[in-house]
Design goal:
binds D-mannonic acid, five-stranded parallel sheet, 21 helices, alpha/beta, three-stranded mixed sheet
Length: 462
């Protein structure tokens, strides 16, 4: 065993689990994974009859491949049996607890990066020793290890957050400090929280994917995952007693500092994804590949990278940012991958700071161009206002959707909507929004009057 993974979604099954399988194939080790679903039993129910194995379907325009991944040894569903989850996390054989719980799973305040004590799951975690949230499970399991005189474990985040290890540490330690300051001190000095940059495009599994796997393999695999050929994992090499799979043997890059890689990936890939998701969705594009094959959107995203994002980045070792942008464009153009704009548009409140806002405000301060980033933000504002360019209603999914709807109630003009949304402290605290309000209002007004394609065409002239 050795690894417990929290949040057994498609991404981990198509990325981290594949690296672990490859590492063991290339250089041995006994690194099975116990997966934990923090909410629903669906994934466990699909995997169980298959003995925890599943198919990973690699999709490229040129050729598609399947592979069976067999690193899961068990899957637990946290709400059904929290004690069993804590027991396996606290077992002496567990060396690493990895996590893909998405941005919102850290229960942090996006504007401050500190734990949100008003979050209902965190409130529950403070009232009871049976946890609900991911930070809650980590904190209680570490408490059990401390009390049993066992060493801590390494906490390995695979979520798209800058310095994800550091954020995981803040979440766990903020919570621990509220429960028992000496526990927080122990975690700070004993546990390890390596940061990582993860990359692979893994859209949610659809019926089409299951059918394609059936056609290719004859297997009826309800737990199959789809992914693009590309994958990347840059890992800060900071594990307890150096105890980890031989990730390098699987092609991961082990480094002392991942920050430049994280910033590049979050701002270039994820920033472009979010920009295309909001603006593309408004214009009626269902997928990222449809959006970038539309020449107006294709030209927009090239400019977004070259004129606004690359100038704000420092180049990571052995990387050429222009080549990286060209490669991203090709990945986005892959028509075999049907990555829904609606899926990427989800949880914007948790994604905007690291993907769009930080670059935008750095450019503003440095006197560099920022119109394309601002249009991406305007696109989010128009999107959460709830209707697309054809007037169809949008199903907005976001942990802050109630706060967003409340602040927009009665805001009937672009100006009022921009003012209302800018007042959302959870997202915009710390950013000098007033400096951009007039221009943002103009852009939201333009999106509302003429739609996203015309607004992009305006920006392309700058
Ligand atoms: C996407 C990411 O859903 C999203 O927000 O931007 O899941 C993206 O596909 C991955 O980070 C690619 O590595």
């Amino acid at each position: 065993m050795g690894i417990v993974h929290l949040g057994l979604g498609a991404f981990f099954r198509a990325h981290g689990a594949v690296y672990i399988a490859d590492a063991m194939e290339a250089s041995g080790g006994d690194w099975g994974v116990v997966g934990v679903s923090l909410k629903s039993p669906n994934t466990r129910d699909k995997l169980k009859p298959q003995g925890w194995a599943y198919t990973a379907l690699e999709l490229a325009d040129s050729a598609c491949k399947t592979r069976v991944i067999q690193v899961l040894q068990d899957v637990l569903v946290a709400p059904e049996n929290p004690t069993a989850v804590l027991a396996v996390m606290a077992a002496p054989s567990t060396k690493i607890v990895s996590l893909t719980v998405t941005e919102k799973g850290y229960c942090l305040n996006p504007a401050t990066g500190r734990i949100n004590f008003d979050h209902p799951d965190i409130e529950a975690d403070l009232k009871s020793s049976t946890p609900v949230s991911a930070p809650g499970y980590l904190m209680r399991a570490l408490q059990m290890r401390k009390e049993a005189g066992l060493p801590a474990f390494s906490i390995l985040s695979l979520d798209n957050l800058p310095e994800n290890g550091q954020l995981a540490k803040l979440a766990v330690c903020d919570l621990a400090r509220a429960v028992d300051p000496s526990l927080a001190d122990w975690i700070e000095s004993h546990a390890r929280f390596p940061s990582t940059m993860v990359d692979r495009i893994v859209p949610a599994t659809t019926e089409d994917v299951i059918e394609q796997v059936r056609d290719m393999t004859g297997l009826d695999d309800q737990a199959a995952v789809q992914h693009e050929p590309f994958r990347q994992w840059v890992i800060q090499d900071d594990f307890m007693d150096n105890n980890r799979p031989d990730f390098a043997a699987a092609g991961a890059l082990l480094v002392n500092d991942v920050q430049l890689f994280e910033l590049m990936k979050l701002r270039m890939l994820n920033g472009a994804h979010s920009a295309l998701a909001y603006l593309g969705y408004l214009a009626g594009h269902k997928t990222i590949s449809d959006t970038v094959h539309d020449p107006v959107f294709g030209a927009f995203i090239d400019d977004f990278w070259v004129k606004e994002v690359i100038p704000a980045l420092k180049t990571p070792p052995s990387t050429d940012l222009n080549d990286y942008a060209g490669h991203l464009k090709k990945r986005f153009e892959n028509t075999a991958i049907q990555h829904q704009t609606w899926q990427i548009a989800m949880d914007g409140s948790q994604k905007l700071p690291q993907r769009i806002l930080n670059t935008l405000f750095e450019n503003l301060a440095a006197g560099r161009p920022y119109d394309r980033l601002l249009l991406a933000l305007a696109g989010w504002m128009q999107y959460v206002s709830g209707w697309d360019d054809s007037g169809a209603a949008i199903d907005v999914r976001d942990p802050l959707s109630k706060a967003i709807a409340n602040c927009l109630a009665g805001a009937n003009t672009a100006e009022a909507r921009v003012a209302a949304l800018c007042s959302l402290q959870e997202i915009f605290a710390g950013y000098p929004m007033e400096k951009l309000r007039p221009q943002l209002t103009e852009m939201v007004g333009r999106l509302e009057r003429s739609g996203s394609r015309a607004a992009i065409e305006d920006v392309l002239k700058c």
